Amino acid sequence: MAAVLIVEDDQERQAVIAEVVGRLGHRVVLAGDGRAALTAAVAHRPDLIIADVDTPHLDSARMCRGLREHPTTADVPVVLITAHQSPGDTELPEAEAVAVVPTSFSAEELTETLRGCLEAPAEARGPDFTEALLRSLDAGVVACDLEGRLVVINQPVRDFFGDDSLGVPARDWAERFKLRRDDGSPLNPDDVALYRALRGEEVQHDVILAHDRQDRPRWFAVNARPVRDAAGQVLGAVAAVHDVTAEHHQRQYERCKSEVLKVLVHAPDTASAGAQVLRAMADGLGWPFLRLWLVDPVTDRLRPAATHLAHGSPPIELPSVLDRGEGMVGACWERGEPIWVPDLQAPDAPVLPRFVEAGHYRAALAVPVRSAEKVVGVLSCFILEHQDPDPALTLLLTGIAGHLGAYLERRRSEELSHQLAASVGEYIALVGHELRTPLTSIGTYTDLIAEEPDQTTVGEIRELLTVIERNNARLRSLVERLLDLSALETGQAELITAEVDLASVVAAAAAGFSVRPDLPERLTVPGDRDRLRQVAENLIGNAVKHSPEGGVVRVSLTADEDTAVLTVTDSGIGIPAGERDRLFARLYRASNARHSDIPGAGLGLALSRAIVELHGGSITLDENEGGGTVATVRLPRRPGTIGPARPGRPDETLGGNH
C-alpha cells in the first residue's frame, strides 16, 4: 500500500480524489495548501503527490521546486490537476510532473492515471531512474559518505567543476576549486557546507563564490544536511547547489546605481562628477579600468574626461583622441548603441591593436552617453575576466550613462541660467554706467560752454571742446562695438572664411605691443583673418594693460593635427575669486581693474568669445601659477566646423578695423 499526498483546497474535489485513491487500496494524506504539503512531504515521504496547480500560499510550481531541492523528496512523482491545459497536454516543465489531469476529470480517467503512476514496474525506480532524475534537476546535487568521499554528483555540478570533481573529497573542495565567501574572502576547508553537514549541522543558503573553467565568477547558494539512518546515525551528507548569480548581480547593480545617483546629487561640478561616477562604478562592480570620453566640440573628436584605474591593476595606453568609428569607443560613438567585446583576443574584436598586444584584459564594453538625442560621450570599461553580454548589465550601464548625460546637460543649463540671470541686472547697470559717464561729461562741458560770454573765442574754449570730442568718440566706439557684438551673437555678421596663416595674424597683432611672441613659421586654420586678429589684439592688449610696468607677457602658438592653441600669459593683477566666468559678459570688468583705474569698456572678452565660438573654438581664462592670468584659445584646424560664414580667398581681408 502506497502513501498518497493530496494537495487540494477545494473540499469537494479533495473528497473525490481521496475516494479514488482509497478504492485503489492506498493510504491518503491530505493537505490544504502547498506550504503544508511541502512540510508534510519532507516529514513523511509519500509515494505519490496529487496537487492542484493553483494551491494557496505556495503554488504547485514552487512546491515542486521545493520538493526537487530537498534530497528526501527529490524523486517523488507528482500528478497535477489543472484547468489551464488540455487533457492530452502533459508538459509542465517547471513542475516536472509525471502526469497532468484536467479539473473536469472523470473517475475512470483519474483511476487510470493514478494506477499507471502507482503500479509502475520496479525497474523504473532503480539506479537508471535515479541517475536520470538527478541529471534532469536544474539544481546541483552532491552527496558524500561518512568519510567525506563523494558518492553522488549530478550533471549541473559536473558541468561547472568538471568530470574529475567526483574524486575530490568534500573537505578539499575549497582549496581545489578556490572557493570564496560572498564577500570574496577565501573559504576555510572546514566551512564547506557538505563537510559541515557531515558534522551534523543543517546548512541553509550558504552563499559561495566560484569561477568556472572560463574564469567567469558565479555565485551559488548551498543547502546541506546530514543523511541519517532509521536510528538517527549520520551516514553521510547531501547538498543542493543553486546558481544565484543572477540574483547576486541584481543586488549588485541596484547598489551600484544607488551610489552613482548619490554622486550625481552631491557632485560640486562637472569636472569632478565624471571621476566620482567612475569610482562608484568600479567599487560597485569590481571593474579595474574605466574611462569617460567626451566629444570635444572644437575638434569633433572624443577626448578622455575622467579615468579610474584600480590599485594594482595594469594600466592601458590609450590615445589622446579618437575619431568616429575608431576602435570600440569610436564605434560606440558612431552607432549610438552599447558595444560588448567578450573576448579582446578574438580576431574580429573591434579594438585597437595595442589592447590585443597588452594581453592583460579579457573583455570590454562601451556605452554611449547622451544629452537629449545627441551622443556627447562614451563610457568604456575593461575587465580582467571573460564577460558575456548581459542584458541586465547593459540596462544598468545605459541607465548610468543616461543619468550622467542628464547631469551634464542640467549643469550646463543651470550655469547658463545663472549667467543669464546675473548678466541681465549687471548689463543694465553697466550700460547705464558706461553711457552715463561720457554723457555726463558731454552735458557738463556743454553747459560750461553755454555759460561763456558771446565774445568768447573758439580758442578759449578749445580745451572744453576736446573733452566733449573725446567722450563723444568713446560713446561712438562703445555703441559700434555693442552693435558688432550683437550682430555676431545673432548671426547677422558673417565671417569671411579662408585658409588663414594664424602665425602671421598673431605676429601682426603683437607688433603693436612690446611683446615677443613664440610662433611657428606657419600655422594654417580655416577662419576669418581680421576677426582672428581682433581676438589676438584684445587678448594681448588686456595682458599688457593689466600687467605692471616691466611685467612679462608671453604669447605662444602651438598646434597638433586637430587644434591650434593660442596662449597669452601675463603677470598682472589676476582675476578676483568668483569673477572668472563673469568676465565674458558684455561690459563686465573685474572689480580690481575698476578700482585700479585701468581703462576699458568690458567688451573685448565678450567680442573675443563670440568670434572664437563662431570659428568652432573655445576660449578660457585661468589663474597663472606665478600670479596673473592665462588666456587660452583653441581653434579647429579642420574645415567645416565654424559658424555662419561665407567663403573668401586665402587671407582675404575685410578692409576695415574691427
Total helices: the number is: 18
Roughly how many Å is the radius of gyration?
A: 40 Å
Strand order of the largest sheet: 7-6-11-10-9-8
* General form: elongated
Task: Give the uncertain stretches in residue-range form.
Answer: 87-91, 122-127, 421-426, 591-595, 644-658
Enzyme class: transferase
Domain PAC: 203-256
Keywords: Kinase, Phosphoprotein, Transferase, Two-component regulatory system
Catalytic activity: ATP + protein L-histidine = ADP + protein N-phospho-L-histidine
Quickly list its features.
39% helix; disordered C terminus; alpha+beta; 658 residues
Summarize this structure briefly.
Keywords: Kinase, Phosphoprotein, Transferase, Two-component regulatory system. By secondary structure, this protein is α+β, with helices and mostly antiparallel strands.
Describe it for me?
InterPro entries: CheY-like_superfamily, GAF, GAF-like_dom_sf, HATPase_C_sf, HATPase_dom, His_kinase_dom, HisK_dim/P_dom, HisK_dim/P_sf. This is histidine kinase. It comes from Actinoplanes hulinensis. The chain has 658 residues and is of the alpha+beta class. The protein has 18 helices and 23 strands. A six-stranded antiparallel β-sheet has the order 7-6-11-10-9-8. Strands 2-1-3-4-5 form a five-stranded parallel β-sheet. A five-stranded antiparallel β-sheet has the order 13-12-16-15-14. Helix 9 runs antiparallel to helix 10. The longest helix has 61 residues.
Task: Itemize the secondary structure elements and their pairings.
Elements: E1 3-7, H1 11-23, E2 27-31, H2 34-43, E3 48-52, H3 60-69, E4 78-82, E5 99-102, H4 107-118, H5 127-136, E6 140-145, E7 150-153, H6 155-161, H7 173-176, E8 180-181, H8 193-198, E9 203-211, E10 217-228, E11 234-243, H9 245-266, H10 270-285, E12 289-296, E13 301-309, H11 327-335, E14 339-341, H12 353-358, E15 363-371, E16 374-383, H13 391-451, H14 462-490, E17 495-501, H15 502-510, E18 524-527, H16 529-545, E19 553-559, E20 563-570, H17 591-595, H18 604-614, E21 618-623, E22 629-636, E23 645-647
Helix pairs in contact: 1-4, 2-3, 9-10, 9-13, 10-13, 13-14, 14-18, 15-16, 16-18
